[in-house]
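We were asked to recover a plausible sequence for a given structure. The inputs and outputs are reproduced exactly as logged, with field labels preserved.

PROBLEM: sequence recovery
POSITIONS: 165
GIVEN STRUCTURE:
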């Protein structure tokens, strides 16, 4: 005969302090955020670092809550809520506080000036010449010589100001 009784207390009652979960989630979020910000800086196009961080941490936090590693759904929900809160708070602060915005979204960096590629800036952002040329073609530009200015924006996109023909 099957036993359908569930240990409700084990499912919902936290086995760790909820404050401990909040502190752990906060420290991990900021630790990984700083590490990713220092190492990766920005990628050409696509998803931003905080977006990736949010998805990875949410998946891990939710998995631990579901798989029983924390032993309670409550602990998993507290950790997920902590991560979502900090992601929102950083976005909100970045919108309202210029200093935080510079930390979260790096300023544009000049890659081409008057048709001359600034290779030092390409190296600084780990952008290859092939990537740059590909982005120029997407903008309908055949050669860097046809560009007044091109910037890599804080989100990794490349913006191009073309010369008049």
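RECOVERED SEQUENCE:
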């Amino acid at each position: 005969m099957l036993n359908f009784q569930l240990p409700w207390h084990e499912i919902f009652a936290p086995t760790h302090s909820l404050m401990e979960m909040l502190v752990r989630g906060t420290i991990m979020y900021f630790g990984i955020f700083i590490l990713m910000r220092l190492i990766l800086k920005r990628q050409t196009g696509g998803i931003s670092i905080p977006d990736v961080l949010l998805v990875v941490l949410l998946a891990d936090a939710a998995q631990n809550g579901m798989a029983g590693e924390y032993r309670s759904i409550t602990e998993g929900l507290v950790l997920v809520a902590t991560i979502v809160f900090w992601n929102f708070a950083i976005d909100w602060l970045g919108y309202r506080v210029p200093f935080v915005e510079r930390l979260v979204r790096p300023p544009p960096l000049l890659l081409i000036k008057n048709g001359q590629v600034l290779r030092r800036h390409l190296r600084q952002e780990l952008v290859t010449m092939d990537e740059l040329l590909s982005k120029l073609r997407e903008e309908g530009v055949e050669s860097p010589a046809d560009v007044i200015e091109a910037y890599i924006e804080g989100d990794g996109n490349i913006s191009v100001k073309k010369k008049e023909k």
